[in-house]
Amino acid sequence: MYSVLGLKGLIGGITDGFQETVFAYGQTGSGKTHTILGSPQELGLLQLCAKELFAAVFATGAEEKHRRVQLVCLEIKNDEVLNLLPEGNATASQEADIFCHKGRRYGYQRVTVWSYEETMVLLQQAIASREVGSSYVNSESSRSHMLVRFLVKTLRAEHGQLAEGVVGSLTLVDLAGNERESGTNGTAINVSLTHLNRMLVKMQDRQLDEWEPQICQGVLWLEVLSIAGNELCSVKLPRASTLQSIKEEISRAVNCNVTGSDLLCFNDETWEVPSMQPLQPIDASRVEVTWVKKEGFLIGDQLFYCGPGLALNSLVQRGARCQVKSGDTFHNYFNVFFPESRCTLAVHRQHLVRMRPGEQRLPPGLQVGDVFYYTGPPRKGQGNALLPAGACGEVVEPGLL
Predict the structure, then answer these.
(1) Is 30 part of any known ligand binding site?
(2) CA nearest to 248, candidates 224, 231, 270
(3) How far is CA 123 from CA 74, 136, 267, 344, in A?
(4) Is 31 labeled as ligand-binding?
(5) How far apart are CA 135 and CA 337, in angstroms?
(6) What is the mean pLDDT of residues 361-389?
(7) Best label site of 183, 188, 197, 263, fewest CB within 10 Å?
(8) Which pLDDT band holds residue 139 (cuts at 50, 70, 90)?
(9) Which residues hold ATP (predicted)?
C-alpha cells in the first residue's frame, strides 16, 4: 500500500512546504486502523511515513537547512475534540494551542520530536488512549476518528543567513467505521462520514473555495506568535476591528492579559493606531502578527539569551548577547534588540536574562562535580548529534550545568 500510493515521493515534498493528507475510509472491519497504525507483526502507513519523514528531515545535504518537526494527535467524536498526546512530558518540548469550533474552545499539544523512536513512544501512549467499542462486525471497532499530523518547519541558509522558511505537513486520518447498526453512536459516525464524503466530492470538482469571498470581504484571521516564532493562538475578527478589540480577543484566547502598552507587529511594522480606530486595510484574509511585551527591561541593559537554539531570521545560540536599544517605543520589533554580531537577534522575553547563562546560580543542593544522567528517549541535537539514554554530564564550575 505504501508503494502503491507513492507516499515516499509525497513525503519528499513536505520539507518544501507541501500539505499532504492520507485518509482511511470504509466499512467496519475493512482494515482501516490496521492500514494506518499497523500491528506488532506489520508496520502501518504511520510508521513507514514517520521513518521516511525523519530520513528526509535529517538527510545528507540538509546541513544548510534548519528544520523542526512537531507532532499533533487528536481524537474526534461527535462534536468533541480531544488531545491524545500525554501532557507534562519532561523529555519533550511542548506547546499548547487552541482553536474554536461552534463557539467552544479546544486545546491540544504540539510536541517537538527529534527522532522516529521518540515519536513512536508518544504515539503508542496516544493510541492506547483512543476510544474503542464493539460492533456486530468487530469486537474492537474504532468509535472515533483519529488524526495524526506532522508539521515540518524548514528555514534555508543562503549566503550564510537563514532565508524565510516554509511549513509543510503530513496528516494521517483513521476514520471511524461506517456503521449499519442503529443507535446514537452509529448515527453520529455516519453523519460525520457523510459530511466528509461531500467535502471530498467538492475537492474533486474544485468547488471547495465557495467560502473564500465571504472571508476576504469581512473577516480577518490573525495567527498570533511570540517573538520566538511560537504560535500562541488563532483568532477570527471582523475587518473593522480596532486595536483595542483585537487585544481583548487575544487576551481571552491565550488566557493572559494583553496590556495597552504591548504591541502587535505585522511584518516589520507595528500597529500603532488610535485604540478606537479601525486598523489600516490589509490585503490578505490570514496574517501573522507578533505579540511584543513592553515591560521588564531598561535602556542600556545588557541581556543574554538562555533558551534553546532557535532558527529565526538568524540562528540564535545560547549565550548570545544583546542590548536594549530603545525604552520608549517598539517602532519595529526586529530593531528592539541588536546583537554584537551582524545578524538580527529576536527572541522571546522569557529567555532573556541579565546574567550570562553560565553565571546563573545553581539550584540548592547542587555542587561542583555532581554528575547527571539523561533518562529520556534518544534525541538528536545540533549536527545530528545523538543524545542516548544514560548519557551523563557534570557540573564543571560554580553556576555552570
Answers:
(1) yes
(2) 224
(3) 11, 28, 36, 37
(4) yes
(5) 61
(6) 68
(7) 183
(8) very low
(9) 26-33
Structure confidence at residue 197 (pLDDT): 63
**C-alpha–C-alpha distance, residues 32 and 29, integer Å:** 8
Is the predicted pLDDT of residue 136 greater than 50, yes or no?
no
Fold type of domain 7-204 = Kinesin (3.40.850)
- Looking at every residue in the chain, the average pLDDT score rounds to 66
Residues 277 and 244 sit within 8 Å (Cβ to Cβ): no
Rounded Cα distance, 301 and 354, in Å = 7
Residues 277, 256: Cα–Cα separation, whole Å? 23
Once rounded to an integer, what is the mean pLDDT over residues 71-77? Answer: 85
Are 296 and 305 within 8 A, CB to CB? no
Confidence of residue 135 (pLDDT cuts 50, 70, 90): very low
Closest CA to 302 of 345, 339, 341, 344: 339
Question: d(Cα 251, Cα 276) in Å, to the nearest integer?
Answer: 17
Report whether 27 belongs to an annotated binding site: yes
Predicted TM-score of the model (pTM)? 0.47
Tell me how crowded residue 349 is: count the other CB atoms within 10 A of its CB.
15
Cell of 360: 546563573
Mean pLDDT of 203-216: 47
Q: For the residues 315-332, what does the mean pLDDT come to?
A: 44
Looking at the structure, give the CATH architecture of the domain made up of residues 212-292: Roll (3.10)
Which position has the grid cell 493528507?
21
Tell me: is residue 29 an annotated ligand-binding position.
yes
